[in-house]
Amino acid sequence: MPEHILLVEDDKRLADLVIAYLRKQGYEVSLHMRGDTAEEAILSLRPDLVILDVMLPGKEGFEVCRDVRARYGGRILIVTARDEDVDEILGLELGADDFLAKPVEPRRLLARIRALLRRGQGEDEGTPGTLTFGTFSISQTTREAQLASSALELTTAEFDLLWLLASHAGSILSRDEIMENLRGIGFDGCDRSIDARISRLRKKLQDDPEAPKRVKTVRGKGYLFSRSDWE
Fold it and tell me: Model-level pTM?
């Protein structure tokens, strides 16, 4: 069965171009053109991935993302014509898995889609389904994480980053390696989305933001998930 993508976009000309391109790549693509009914469409169709424009009639894409996130477990890729860092951070805070600024080059869009869908297909071969470090555990099979027997509330993007870090515990992962694993592209030196997610994860992992011990910043190199400091 081809993977199903729902495009929520009110620019019909642009939508037709995107749909034609993605269908040539083998995807099933549906179109919805309003924000105020997008949530209903997402929950009804249950696509594998939603491409969600921000500027929509009736309701902004950010609001749609926020309202649907708790009931939709698929991937959400937000696109916007406003190329602002605050938009990207807001989208990720509201539960989006990735963010692209318009105009979107088709191959870049395809790379992001493929990376997001790969992350939804389960654990990598040879990687154990559950990792445990003291009082912390994370399961790729159930996509759940616990700290001191309390379940952590994580967005899909936060879980994917946390799993990536935990599965490389004791090793430094550069921003470039993280971006390549999670988005299928390298770090461009400007993207701050990884830093924003790390900050949110530290709060949820009860890690001191001023002197983190569980997810450490290694200056000039990247991030390191500690094997200890989980008691």
Answer: 0.60
